[in-house]
Amino acid sequence: MTSGILVLVLVLVGGMALRMPIGFSMLVSGIAYLIVKQQDIGLVAEQVGNGLYNSYVLLAVPLFVFAANIMNAGTVSERIFDFCRILVGRMRGGLAQVDILVSVVFSGMSGSAIADAAGPGLVTIRQMLKKPEYSRGFAGAVVVASATLGPIIPPSIPMVIYAMVSGASVGALFLGGVVPGFLMAGLMMAVVHFIAVKRNMPREAKIPLKEWPAIIYRGALPLSMPIVLLGGIYSGAFTPTEAAAVAAFHALILAGVVYRALTWRTFWGVIMESTRGSAVITMILAGSFILNYAFTAEGVPQAMAQWVDSMHFSKIGFLLMVNLMFLVLGCFLDVSVLLLVFVPMLLPAAKLLGVDLVHFGVLVVLNMMIGLIHPPFGMLLFVTKALTGIPIGEMMKEGWPFLLMLLLLLLAMTLFPQIVLWLPQTMGYGGK
């Protein structure tokens, strides 16, 4: 390790230890590297400016953030919840099953796990806690687990960022998440059913048939968004980046004009919240560009590729190592940091071994979603605790079956790439 990289790592870790925002820590550590290497500090502005200017696909990130916040501020979550009650409410543990199905639908609109937990998840937790058969820990665990569907089922903010880093097709990545996403949802529903039968959890009251048309009508327009987005992308009507603008506009028209659920004050709050969320991501992006410059200048990605080659890893062995690495890092570091700092270091090795970049990307994103829900620092656990007051220990105690299920699915996707690649290849994707 050179003196420049050593200083960079020490400053980065020191900043994080002092609770400095991660984006600032990355920028400061990058500046420290340039000082030690006696390079022009103006390189920071150059790398950040060029990185942001040349990444058109990144425009999708703030737009998807805005769309998710609009839907959470309006009545979209409640409308989807009522619609899903018709479909699965009569199953054992009906409210938990409804939450999973709501997450599937909401995933096709937001692309964010945090937005899923903060919007539909909050609605279903409140409903579950009204009934004594649902413990606080179980309600929180279901919501935390189902929120991981957000970035797997397209559209997906992490996949957009991965596409920017790797050069992989956004459209192919979105398609690659469809089958794993629905497998995740099906397995979660099976886990809920097993627990619900064991604990004799209630079925939801039957909704009179005469009320169905009104509920379906209320939920029809929100349900149209995934169809519009994916249909537009794969028909060629608009690009994935433009799809994010369509999603934001669609959500704004629904919540503001059709449902009249947005006041000017609420709308201003949505703008401010979206600006803050986008600014955090942008600062991390800015820091990542200078860090990636440092790592590339020091030959870290090439050294990683050479090390993997010297270890004679097979594709499966390499992917298992990557899984282990991201499962550990995922519970300590932000998803954006993992995507923007660690993935670029691993890409040369992945390419050297002939790992398909779409398969690799979906695996990486699923790893990061699992990191959001496992202790000690799973971000979704903390978000849900902040919103509901449910202790993290109670959610962890009830959440281990969902965590085990996700780990088994991750292993299956690692060993059988066609789980990810079948749909993209069927739709014409043929590259690595």
In short, what is this structure?
The chain contains 22 helices and no strands.
| CA distance, first residue to last residue | 32 Å
What sort of overall outline do the alpha carbons produce when their principal axes are compared?
globular
Helix coverage percent? over 70%
Strand content: under 5%
Total helical segments: 22
Radius of gyration: 22 Å
Structure description:
By secondary structure, this protein is mainly alpha-helical. The protein folds into two domains: 1-41; 42-426, no CATH class. The chain has 22 helices and no strands. The chain has helices at residues 3-17, 22-36, 43-53, 60-73, 76-88, 94-110, 113-118, 120-128, 136-147, 157-166, 170-176, 178-199, 212-235, 240-258, 264-297, 300-310, 315-329, 335-352, 357-371, 379-388, 392-415, 418-426. The longest helix has 34 residues, at 264-297. The two termini are 32 Å apart. 49% of the residues are buried. The model has no long low-confidence stretch (mean pLDDT 83).
Please describe the topology of this protein.
Layout: H1 3-17, H2 22-36, H3 43-53, H4 60-73, H5 76-88, H6 94-110, H7 113-118, H8 120-128, H9 136-147, H10 157-166, H11 170-176, H12 178-199, H13 212-235, H14 240-258, H15 264-297, H16 300-310, H17 315-329, H18 335-352, H19 357-371, H20 379-388, H21 392-415, H22 418-426
Helix pairs in contact: 1-2, 2-15, 3-15, 4-14, 4-15, 5-6, 5-13, 6-8, 6-9, 6-12, 6-13, 8-9, 9-20, 9-21, 10-18, 10-19, 11-22, 12-21, 13-14, 15-18, 16-18, 17-19, 17-21, 18-19, 19-21
